[in-house]
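Colleagues,

For the teaching module next term, I've prepared a clean inverse folding example: a structure given as tokens, and then the sequence designed for it. I'd like students to try predicting residues themselves before seeing the answer, so please don't circulate the second half yet.
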């Protein structure tokens, strides 16, 4: 079936050049997000939802609850030649009590040909990667542009950080979590809707210290977190939150995250909104047993990024490079967030400088900065 073909084959069918090993050396992620989105936007979402609802897996897992459709996210695998193959479509429902309280997300997964339900899993909806307490939970930068206000894309690159229990913060009675993420929002501080994607490095020392790593998508506060695959510590991550047309030509936000080490990515779309700010952050998120999580110790994390202003790129096969985030930083068009708790600076934030060259970016460069753990006191 067409759904099982690689994107390079689909590109040829549409009169575009296929990916080659030379293209792969320049980075698959410069075009995979929009190529995959252009394909999944033509899928029949209603048919996918109906297939999920009619399955015995859905009926068993949702018994006793009211259900509300949330979104669909797609998981793909890709190789060194930038060939991308659909792994699954994942239909997300909210499970609610009769008084409207959401208890969990029900994720019903479909096979690559979208003809059969393969499993149904529950995800806790109490994870969230934003709050009204940014000064005690966020560390990073938020960029904007005073002359071309719309932010249509924010791209961030990092390695999944390894975390450990710090001398100041026990991870025995509560989880310690470090999130790294990129997002775009309608207003400063993530207000008015924050579309974001990132990774969680989770440490649970209740019975020996156990590490868990998750890659996720979220539209805070409108949609819950979707945990879509499990990366490994030190894996190379590329994340892209961008505005792109759906099948009806409406410009809507998409969230895309790829693990370049294991060749896995996932993506979803959300409701239309205008976005004016791009965030590049680490955070102590909320989790099921507490909000916010404790801060674990971690090695210095390097974050690279670029940002795009003005009208969004609608070509699924090529988009020109944006600005390295050092450009708005040098122009003073940023807000800085330092994580401080109980008067103690928890994470030291460096200045933003020119980073590495953007693959296939015509000489453009990312901007980069570092996040350095100093103390978990007060968290």
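(Answer key — instructors only)
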């Amino acid at each position: 079936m067409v759904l099982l073909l690689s994107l390079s084959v689909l590109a040829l069918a549409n009169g575009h050049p296929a990916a080659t090993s030379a293209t792969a050396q320049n980075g698959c992620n410069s075009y995979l997000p929009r190529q995959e989105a252009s394909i999944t936007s033509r899928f029949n979402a209603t048919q996918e939802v109906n297939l999920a609802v009619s399955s015995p897996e859905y009926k068993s897992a949702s018994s006793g609850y009211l259900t509300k459709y949330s979104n669909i996210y797609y998981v793909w695998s890709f190789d060194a030649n930038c060939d991308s193959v659909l792994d699954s479509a994942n239909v997300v429902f909210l499970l609610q009590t009769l008084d409207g309280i959401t208890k969990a997300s029900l994720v019903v997964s479909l096979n690559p040909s979208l003809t059969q339900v393969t499993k149904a899993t529950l995800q806790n909806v109490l994870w969230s990667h934003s709050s009204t307490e940014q000064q005690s939970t966020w560390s990073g930068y938020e960029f904007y542009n005073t002359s071309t206000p719309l932010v249509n894309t924010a791209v961030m690159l990092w390695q999944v950080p390894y975390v450990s229990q710090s001398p100041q913060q026990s991870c025995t009675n509560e989880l310690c979590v470090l999130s790294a993420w990129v997002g775009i929002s309608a207003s400063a501080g993530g207000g008015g809707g924050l579309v974001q994607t990132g990774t969680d490095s989770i440490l649970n020392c209740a019975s020996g210290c156990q590490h868990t790593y998750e890659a996720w998508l979220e539209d805070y506060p409108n949609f819950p977190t979707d945990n879509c695959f499990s990366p490994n510590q030190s894996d190379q991550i590329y994340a892209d939150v961008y505005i792109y047309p759906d099948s009806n030509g409406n410009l809507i936000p998409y969230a895309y995250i790829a693990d370049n080490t294991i060749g896995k990515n996932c993506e979803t779309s959300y409701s239309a909104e205008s976005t004016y700010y791009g965030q590049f952050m680490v955070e102590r998120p909320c989790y099921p047993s507490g909000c916010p999580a404790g801060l674990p110790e971690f090695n210095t994390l390097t974050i690279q990024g670029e940002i795009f202003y003005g009208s969004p790129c609608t070509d699924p096969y090529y988009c020109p490079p944006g600005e390295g985030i050092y450009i708005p930083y040098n122009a003073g068009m940023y807000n800085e967030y330092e994580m401080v708790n109980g008067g103690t600076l928890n994470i030291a934030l460096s200045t933003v400088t020119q980073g590495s060259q953007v693959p296939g970016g015509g000489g453009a460069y990312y901007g980069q900065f570092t996040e350095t753990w100093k103390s978990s006191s007060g968290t």
